[in-house]
Structure formats: C-alpha cells, structure tokens
From TrEMBL:
Lineage: Bacteria, Bacillati, Actinomycetota, Actinomycetes, Geodermatophilales
GO molecular function: peptide transmembrane transporter activity
One cellular component term from this protein's GO annotations in UniProt: periplasmic space
Pfam family of the protein (one): SBP_bac_5
InterPro entries reported in the protein's UniProt record: Peptide/Ni-bd (IPR030678), SBP_5 (IPR039424), SBP_5_dom (IPR000914)
Official protein name in the record: Peptide/nickel transport system substrate-binding protein
Swiss-Prot/TrEMBL GO biological process terms: peptide transport
Keywords: Signal
Keyword Signal in record: yes
Organism expressing this protein natively: Geodermatophilus ruber
Solute-binding protein family domain: residues covered: 92-418
Amino acid sequence: MSGTTSSVRRPRRQRLWVGLLSVLALVLSACGGGTTANSGSTGGEIDPNGTFRYVFVQNPSTFDPHRSGNAWDMIFFRLVYDQLIMLDENDELAPQLATSWEFVDGETALVMELRDDVTFIDGTPFNAEAVKANLERAKTLETSTLKGQLARVESVEVVDEFTVRLNLNGPGGDLPNLFTDRLGSMISPAAFDNPDLDQNPVGSGMATLVEYVPGQVSKYDRNEEYWDPEAAKAAHYEILVQTSATTRFNMLQTGQAELTYLDPSQADQAEAAGLNSAPSKSLSVMSINMNVGKPPFDDIRVRQALQHAIDRQAIVDGVFFGLGEPVAQFMPPDHWAYDPDVTPEGEYGYDPERARELLAEAGYPDGVEFEWLVPSLDDHRAVAEALVPMLAEVGMTAHTRVIEAPTTPVTFYGRQEGNVYNGMGAPFADPTVQYQNYLPGAFRNPWNVSSPEFQQAWLDALSGTTPEERIPALHRMVEAEKEIMISFPLHAHFPPSAWTDRAVFPEGYEPAYAPTFRGVGVTA
C-alpha cells in the first residue's frame, strides 16, 4: 500500500442545507494559491501575522498522546505534533512524517520510509530511532491508552536512519489508519520523562504551545522552523473553551473568534446574522447504551424492543432540525466501510408493535421500568426528553437522572449505575476502533457479552492492506454485532459549523466537528 494513494475513495456526504452548501462551494472555489483568501462571502489578503481563533467545548485531556483516552484531543495535537500519516482533503491516507508505507513478507511486517528534514522543537532530530522510541513507549508505558492498538506489533526495527520496520504477530491492516491519530503522533524522545509533558507538548508540529489556561484557552505560535512552510497560514492560533452554544455564537458575532460549531437550532440564526454555516464534516454517532448485566436488558429481546420503540428520523427532525441521518451501525453512510445491508429500516427500524411483542416474549407483557442516565449536555438532554414518551407508548417507562457528562462512562460501566444512557461517539481512526467495545475485556463491555462470530470477524477485519480487502470482514463484523447489541446507534451527527468572513480555508476544506487547522488562516 503506497503512502500516496488509497484504493477506496470515501464518498462525499449528501447533506442537507443545499442553499448553504452552495454558498460554501462558491467560497471554496474562490480559494486559490498565494495569498488569496477564502473568507466566507468576500475575498481578501491573508494576514501572515494574524491570529486564528476556534471555540470548542472542552480542554485536551492531556498533551501527552500516549496517555490520551479522548479522541477529541486530536484537535489540539494536530497543531503541536506531526503524525506519521495524515488524511488529505478527500479523507485519503497521505504522507506526513512517513513518505511511504508498505506491507511486506506476506503482510508480516510494515515498512515505512520517513522524512529526513524534520526536527522536534527541542532540537532532537526526527528519524527511525524516534519512531521506534515512540511506539515502544506507547506499547510499554504503564498508563498508556494505546497498548491495545499495538497488540499485533511484535517489535520495531530500525532498518536505517530513515526507514523503520514493524514486525507483526498478527494482522495489522488497521495500522495506517491508526497512525493518523494519537498512535501516530510523534513526541520528542528527549521529552518522554518531562514531568510537565501533559501540559507542555514537545513535538515537531506546525505550531508550539505558548500558553495554556485549563478551562479557558490554549495559545500557539507558528513554528518558524517547520518543514512545511505552507502549513501555518496564521502566526498565532487560539482554541478557546466555551460550553454554551449561545455564547459561542455570540463570540463569532462580536469578532472574538473565527470558527466554532453550534447547536442545530441555531442554523437559521447563523444565516440571518450573516455568518457562513454548513453541516460539519463528522464521524460522530449518537448511541443508546444498555447495561446488559442486569434485568431487564440482560435479555436481548428487551434490547431489541428498545431499538424498535425509537423513531430515529423523528429524533433527527425534531431534536436536531434535520441535521443528521438515522443509522443502524456505528459509521456514517459516507464512510468507506459502511455496510449498505445494515440500515435503520426493516429489521432494525421503528416498529412499536414489534417492540411490544418482544417485551411479551421476554416475559414483560405489562412493560418494564428502568433508570436512564442522561449526560448533562443540552443535546443529550433533549434526546432523552424526546425518547421518554416514545418508549412509554410501547410500555417502557424510563426514569431519567441527569449526571455530569465527563463522569458518565465511569458511572455506567465502572460502577454500573443505571440501565441505559445516551452518548455521542468521538471521531475514530479505523472502524475496528468503534467496534472493539464488543470484545470481551473492553472497558465498555464489563459483562464480557460477545460472540465467537463477532470476535473472528473483528480479527479478520484487521487483515488486508487495502480497504477493498478489508471490507468483507468489516461488514461481517457490523452484522455480527447486531446479534450482541449491548448498544445501538441512533443517528450520524452533523452539527452546524459556523465561521466569519475573516476565516481563510484551503481549497477543498470542509469545517469539521473535530477540525484541523493546516492551511487555515485569517484575512488582514
């Protein structure tokens, strides 16, 4: 598999808001080379000394990629760290620190050729030794969150100064995708033991962190020694923290920021206020998660009844103002691994009568009562409020309890409180990451509910060096999961991104739910 090509294109999303997308298309088509700016509806000159400001809802959990358990951290990491491989504007695998990669010797090893002109910000050279050191740290560090992703890497071998070989003890077809994420984020080996690495990143990225105020802002300066001088179009970048969508909206209006994402209810407001807006590029899927270790959801028929009681399209239309798409798998329909045979219609769709039948078959002809944990986020609470009366119609009585959003996984899976909760999936590098929660021993599967068919399909999905080779097993994995169903998806989530006329995007850029800032800047 070459580092410069990918054999399956990820199709573009057929989204709503045709009018706004037409505006976006005109904006992007106006973006050219040199200093011509794509800045909403007007043109202008890029300010090489400008500051680009983005507003998000949280801090990074850490600036140490090997200790990060939060995929949203990549918003911050892509400024300060380079990855071995990156995704281009078409979501194709493309070179970054690795110029090419190839599976060799019957797919028992992965060989990567590396850039020879990269230096970490502390002066340490980037080379094969640095890659080896990073992967070995991620594999052996006691607090590493990435050990599982390296389970099939037996050893890392330095072939020469800029060639590294990963010897595998099992299939590793997921590795190129994983190297676009935390696993591929390269830290200076000289900084491994820095006691402040969690708040003072030492990478080779296009920017360096210069100020970090948890809960408020992180500020970055352009790395003037960066190997790709076209990457940082602004001299400074800021990521501000604001959980209120109303406040984020106001920050754009008052010139305090250039880009953010909003609640779907604010889409029309953004347009009326003269802001540029479109549904975000996103891999996030909202799901319903069930405690299968205790009644009533220890019976799969009750889990199936819950799925049939929910009108997904009504949730998308009523709660998210049409910005989303009902799904029955943990990937959006435009993803290269999407299984067209698993849809939210028919077998997995809205069917209240079937829900009642399943409850009766499971021994609950008079219905069930259970506790629903609701993360304290506006959209999660709105979904729960919409679902309660739907469920009541089939005899499922949900008693809701709002809890702090960051504590939800520990509360539900660790302490096993509650019977159900609704949550939003984070961006993922490879589809097997989404489904590894259905393996025995996974944190989100403390009950070890799985099946031999699923486990084999998941393992088989790691085999193959091209998407075409992997897709049959990935589809078997998606279909086998439906026979386990400790959770099920509601909809693919495309919240509206909004930006001001000062924002400069490179050609082909789509504002994302987890945006990147390569080639992004501001007008003078």
